[in-house]
Design brief:
Layout: E1 9-13, E2 20-27, E3 33-39, E4 49-55, E5 61-68, E6 71-80, E7 87-94, E8 99-104
Antiparallel strand pairs: 1-2, 2-3, 3-4, 4-5, 5-6, 6-7, 7-8
């Protein structure tokens, strides 16, 4: 943990094959997750997954970029309703193929 009690590193060992995994975290000045990096096997330092997170001025998640090693594979954009700030849609782009998936969300209010 860091000086703000935020998790900065996780180490684990698999029971069957005894491989060790490692996950590191970095944070923005507001304490929001900026980056997560995961190694499934600590012996292969070049084989990792990385997630980068971006936020708007209110602290709402806006972008997630996923990397497999140094290759950018997925870009996600989170859209919110301007009036209610409720989740409106998630755009998922497969970077190598440029294929985009749009997931729309609806909100239902009950009395």
């Amino acid at each position: 943990y860091n000086e703000h009690d935020l998790l900065v590193e996780e180490l684990s060992q698999f029971v069957i094959n005894k491989k060790k995994a490692r996950t590191t975290y970095s944070y923005t000045e507001q304490g929001l997750t900026k980056e997560k990096k995961h190694w499934k096997n600590t012996k292969n330092v070049n084989e990792f997954e990385k997630w980068e997170y971006q936020y708007d001025e209110l602290g709402n998640l806006t972008y997630i970029d996923y990397y497999k090693g140094d290759v950018h594979t997925t870009h996600e954009e989170v859209l919110y309703d301007n009036a209610t700030f409720m989740l409106k849609a998630l755009l998922v782009q497969d970077v190598p193929s440029n294929f985009i998936t749009i997931i729309k969300f609806t909100t239902t209010y009950y009395d």
